[in-house]
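Fold this sequence, please.
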Amino acid sequence: MLKFTIPIEPKGKKEARRKRNGHTYKDPETREYMEAIAQIVRAQYRGPPLYGPLKVEYHCYRPRPKSAGKSVWAATRPDWDNYAKALGDALQGILWVEDSRIADGRVLKLYAQDENPRIEIMVSELDELQGSSK
């Protein structure tokens, strides 16, 4: 299993923006966020992109607002799947050939207990014959 820690606050992927002339473009903030993720993981991983099938788990630790009390679960926006979209796309060509190779995925939205926002990523290859992790 491969493990990575990205020491930045998790953000969800925003939808593409549309100009008045009909052309679409990526939100600049989302693009910068995804580039930062890619740069950090490139510094931690030197191997070739994995072909898969893959199992991926994302632990997204957000800063705790005062209104959250003692809860560990960040049951607020953005939606969990927007985290997965941003991370899957950002790491395409770095950790995996393409994010469609992720066959089993999980996203946990958590509040950082230590006031240290971050993203932890665990990746493992699935056994083709048995469907189990290596």
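The chain has a mean pLDDT of 90. Strands lie at 2-6, 17-18, 24-25, 54-62, 102-111, 118-125.
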